[in-house]
Amino acid sequence: MQNSLAGKLLVATPELGDDLFTRSVVFLLQHDEETAEGVVLNKPLDASVDDVLPGWQEGASEPRRIFQGGPVQLDSAIGLAGLPGDVEPPPGLKRLFGAVALVDLDAPQEIVWPQVSALRIFAGYAGWSAEQLADEQARGGWYVVDAEVGDVFDQDPATLWRRVLRRQAGPIGWASTYPVDPALN
């Protein structure tokens, strides 16, 4: 796909009022002519990593919680890791974009941990047909911005939406000051 958004962030505009996607930051893992899939980076759940994947807690990045990756297949887990350098990934890791790698959660942790600088586990994922995502963008539901590795493993997910917007130029950056409830403004 010539204009693939894979590796970019979808940042919910202030007008997007869907509960899960309100002020969400989604890291797109795949985008082609048929589908778009990613994980929500800023929705930690009230469950530790060990609650879902025993043994992975020790290597997880703060805040060491499972994150709700999206509304699709909540009974499955996706692991993303920071993989520094441009060396060939070891077994159990597949480089996706720059320093971000997909983790095989069936791989032994002792093989994965020494190789990674960060680890985040997501329950489920966000998914759209390519046409559905394009339609949501056209209606003004999402900003598309460049991702930084730190976004994927951010330790303060409650402020990620505002900080990602703040680093953008022009009107998109101004959206970072949009109040949670404009009626109280």
UniProtKB/TrEMBL annotation:
Q: What's in the GO CC field?
A: cytosol
Question: Which Pfam families does the entry mention?
Answer: DUF179
Which InterPro entries does UniProt cross-reference here?
A: AlgH-like
Query: NCBIfam families in the record, alphabetically?
Result: PRK00228.2-2 (NF001270)
Record-stated family: Belongs to the UPF0301 (AlgH) family.
Name-wise, this protein is UPF0301 protein BJY20_002565
What is the originating organism of this protein? Janibacter cremeus
Q: What is the lineage of its organism?
A: Bacteria, Bacillati, Actinomycetota, Actinomycetes, Micrococcales
